[in-house]
Amino acid sequence: IKPLVVAAALESGQFRPSSVVDTSPGFVTVGAKTIEDGRNLGRVSLTTILARSSNVGVTKLAMTLQPDQLWETMTQFGLGELTSSGFPGESAGMLTHFNHWQPISQATLAYGYGISVTPLQLAQAYAVIGADGVMRPVSLLALDQAVDGRQVISRDTATAVRRMLEEVVRPGGTGTKAKVDGYRIAGKTGTAWKFAAGGYSEDKYISIFAGLAPASDPRLATVVVIDEPSGELYYGSDVAAPVFADVMSESLRLLAV
Questions:
Q1: What backbone phi and psi angles, to 5 degrees, belong to 226?
Q2: pLDDT tens digits, residue range 197-228?
Q3: Alpha carbon of 55 to those of 1, 61, 93, 174, 217: distances in Å?
Q4: Nearest-angstrom CA–CA distance, 192 and 137
Q5: From CA 140, how far away is CA 226, in angstroms rounded?
Q6: What pLDDT, in 10s, does the model give residues 75-126?
Q7: Is residue 19 within 8 Å of residue 65, measured between CB atoms?
């Protein structure tokens, strides 16, 4: 979800790709909740917020936006709405209207809590970033040619976020295991506690990697979801990113990209 928040910040006009956010002292308190990073990253760029997956950085970013600005961008990406797939029983996920948000709602939304999305919705959102900001209908059937879409974020915003997401996969980022030899990859790791009765489980996870390839001229958007990874490793960077690399590598080869 973090790249979509960065896109909302850029679309608001309050931030540029070179903007800096102060994450010191490594945590931020919203209401009764303290949101932390693994370490104090200090003053960091929007690119570093994504590359290092800073919860504090993206929370501060989200909290500077008007609730309607953030909600509008999320809906433009297709969150909270059915896709056009027409698949029976498809879920629309959950994106509460901003009129019902509390400050903590806006803060936790920034790093993926208090919201639910399907893998298809997430793939559609990343496809927007890959398509220079154009949203096209989802089809479960192969089409002979691309259908017309609509511009939901600016081309400049999409390009900037895509370049930032390349840093996630480069040395120093959280997604190095998603690297595919010979191709530029743009993507994002995700690790979340699973929703359980009364709140969130603290021993069951969903691990994710979502990304685009080749980042220079995207042809594919892919989302890998590992539901309740077993063993000692459970971060998206460890369990979902390598699967993404394998799937993407073979897919690019089959498409002769």
A1: -105, 115
A2: 888 898 899 999 999 999 999 999 999 999 99
A3: 11, 10, 22, 13, 29
A4: 28
A5: 22
A6: 999 999 999 999 999 999 999 999 999 999 999 999 999 999 999 999 999 9
A7: no
**If you write DSSP's letter for every residue of the chain in order, what string do you get?**
-HHHHHHHHHHHTS--TT-EEE-TTSEEEETTEEEE-SS---EEEHHHHHHTT-HHHHHHHHHHS-HHHHHHHHHHTTTTS--TT--TT----B---GGG--HHHHHHHTTT-S-B--HHHHHHHHHHHHTTTEE----SS--SSPPP-EE-S-HHHHHHHHHHHHHHHSTTSTTGGG--TTS--EEEEEEEEEEETTEEEEEEEEEEEEEEESTTS--EEEEEEEES--SS--SHHHHTHHHHHHHHHHHHHHTT-
pLDDT in tens, 38-84: 999 999 999 999 999 999 999 999 999 999 999 999 999 999 999 99
Q: In the 3-class helix/strand/coil scheme, how is 70-96 assigned residue by residue?
A: HHHHHHHCCCCCCCCCCCCCCCCCECC
Question: Which two tokens mark 81?
Answer: 């709405």
Which residue type, as a one-letter code, is found at position 93? G
As given in the structure block, the two tokens for residue 142 are 């192969």
Question: In this structure, how many other beta carbons lie within 10 angstroms of the beta carbon of residue 254?
Answer: 8
CA 182 to chain centre: 24
